[in-house]
Automatic annotation (TrEMBL):
<dbReference type="GO" id="GO:0051539">
    <property type="term" value="F:4 iron, 4 sulfur cluster binding"/>
</dbReference>
<dbReference type="InterPro" id="IPR057431">
    <property type="entry name" value="LdpA_Fe-S-bd"/>
</dbReference>
<dbReference type="InterPro" id="IPR050157">
    <property type="entry name" value="PSI_iron-sulfur_center"/>
</dbReference>
<keyword id="KW-0479">Metal-binding</keyword>
<dbReference type="Pfam" id="PF25160">
    <property type="entry name" value="LdpA_Fe-S-bd"/>
</dbReference>
<protein>
    <submittedName>
        <fullName>Fe-S cluster containing protein</fullName>
    </submittedName>
</protein>
<dbReference type="InterPro" id="IPR017896">
    <property type="entry name" value="4Fe4S_Fe-S-bd"/>
</dbReference>
<keyword id="KW-0408">Iron</keyword>
<feature type="domain" description="4Fe-4S ferredoxin-type">
    <location>
        <begin position="118"/>
        <end position="147"/>
    </location>
</feature>
<dbReference type="GO" id="GO:0046872">
    <property type="term" value="F:metal ion binding"/>
</dbReference>
<keyword id="KW-0411">Iron-sulfur</keyword>
<dbReference type="InterPro" id="IPR021039">
    <property type="entry name" value="Fe-S-bd_prot_LdpA_C"/>
</dbReference>
<dbReference type="Pfam" id="PF12617">
    <property type="entry name" value="LdpA_C"/>
</dbReference>
<keyword id="KW-0004">4Fe-4S</keyword>
<dbReference type="InterPro" id="IPR017900">
    <property type="entry name" value="4Fe4S_Fe_S_CS"/>
</dbReference>
Amino acid sequence: MITNNSICNSEALKKGNWVKLICGASNQDLPSIVDLCSIYGAAGVHCIDLAADEAVINAARNSIDWVFETYGKKPWLMISLSDGQDAHFRKAWFNPDLCPSNCLRPCQNICPALAIGNEGGVNTNKCYGCGRCIDTCPLGIIQEKDRRLTLKDFAPLLTTIKPDAVEIHTAPGRVKEFEKTIKEIFKANLKLKRLSVSCGLQGHGINHEELAEELWLRHKFLRIHNQKPLWQLDGRRMSGDLGAGAAKIAVKLWEKIRPIAPPGPLQLAGGTNESTIKYLPEINGPEGVAFGGKARKIIQPWLEEAQRKRISLKDWPEGWEAALSEAKRLVNPWLIRKSS
């Protein structure tokens, strides 16, 4: 069924106004997800990218339905999958009994998700896998745990939750794995509005020309199966909250990939924040942007306070208005820009 909201979301990709919220491919913090989806849905994002977890999807869908009833806006619901090992699908873990009593807990100070408290280990629901704590630990006791779904679980989950779109995180040299993943997705017999492919340069030891070649290989397969691709260019993954430097990395990747990319809209991610739009041309820019870490950080004080109050943000008028104002400040420049 094609709705006005579906048309608006599709048109945003054509016009260069597309904005996606990334809740996190491994984020399972249900209270925060409910509030993130409500706030950014009301702010006007066109898509919400979520972990492939039934509880997460149900929580997000309830928020999306509420946004539609209240504001008349309905972003697409997208889930993230991976065709192999990927940092977005990990969780940090450590045994707190190994921490010395005088440890200053630098892991706690650097965690953007507030997943590490004054005592104990990692709150796995809050952790979304940025990995900053791993390098910060002076004892090197923090490990990463792979939290990907197995291939055989893809189709049953998709059949149950029926998302509007799917994103596949991929990496160089994984064309066969990508094709297997796509075939499993097709078993769910869904008519997806978009099939997003996410990849970048970080950690892969390739240049932009080689990345473009990888995207073309995937385009060939998607074209055979009549899929509409969306290319997510992952600049510096999970770093949008770090500042303007991270934003420049994502923009530079787009500048290099754009002339040699396969057909389909290009969307920035990985390091995106309020500075991203400042580094882009006023016309002929990318078709869209995804905000993750920055989107969470700017409304985090209200998310945390709502959880302390044990209420949803939408039931706290002062907090709702303050958080929505911050969200709009991030999103609005993209909603009103003219890219052609």
